[in-house]
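does this look right to u?? 2-acetamido-2-deoxy-beta-D-glucopyranose version
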Amino acid sequence: MKAASNIILLAVAFATIVTAASMVKFVNNCPYNTWFWTVGPAGSNIFGNDHERIMVPGSGGSVIHSMINTEALSGGLVLKIRDLPRYQVGQVGILQVEYHLEPSTKSFWYDFSTIDCLPGAGPENPRHCPVIEGGIKMHVPGQAIENACPPAWCANGTCHNTYQKHGSWLGEPTLRCSMNYDLVIEMCTENPGHQTHDDAAPKPKPVLVASPNGSCGTGTGYTCMGSRFGESCSKYGYCGNGEPYRGMGCQPEFATCAKSMFGSCCSQHNYCGDTDEFCGQGCQSAFGNCGLGNSNLRSTSR
Ligand SMILES: *[C@@H]1O[C@H](CO)[C@@H](O)[C@H](O)[C@H]1NC(C)=O
Ligand SMILES: *[C@@H]1O[C@H](CO)[C@@H](O)[C@H](O)[C@H]1NC(C)=O
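got this back:
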């Protein structure tokens, strides 16, 4: 009899769990991985920093997010979806699912936005969203429920029931469903789409021009090398020769820093020196020598 009562208790506990939470289930049918981030309303401390990503593995992988009580946070939660593992890199193609779980009305609101996707943009454009073409569907599974809990989807280049512009208007596609149902977001429902090219590839270094007017350094695009104002770029951004220009703060990227006086290694903080601090970790080999061997040459030269 003891065993039987345990089973009943378990069943009750299980029922409580099931009825307490609605879930958002991601299913990724694309041949590449996708990622999502949770971003909460102001004051919620849910920031969705780039490194807080959650991966949904490609080729049929799935991940479940249990809806949180956003009524307690006074604002909905946004799930930002992308096909690259970062989104805070400027204007990029992000799909956004938003939900607002309202236990007081035993329901949740949800919507789907493609505002950040550039229609017709190819995979070389960071604002490309592969699943607009490949298909994405946000729905509450079960045919019978679909009338009450409408789906939103994109397929073959066209989206339905989704936000494609900012603002709010009559008949805007904010959808509602009773609590305890789950939201499923399926990606690449039609075809594989084309994954966005990696927009974090290192960009070519800007070409520096010999300073025509004595200014140099970050933001100007001017280097002192080859300029008639002197070979060193001071921390204040002026070319010159001599101590104030060659000393601490000299910008090695834009000038010949005082190698003989200050050392032959350029540290990660853009200072010249000869100790491990300058020649070791973070040393910029483009602007001088690197390697701990160099630190044996001299002690700090100042
Ligand atoms: C997309 O296009 C394909 C091929 O023409 C078609 O089979 C499919 O039904 C379309 N999907 C939707 C949701 O319209
Ligand atoms: C030199 O030219 C740049 C770019 O036009 C300007 O920002 C800077 O203020 C000028 N510097 C001087 C010393 O005139």
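The chain has two domains: 21-187, 204-302. idk if thats expected tbh
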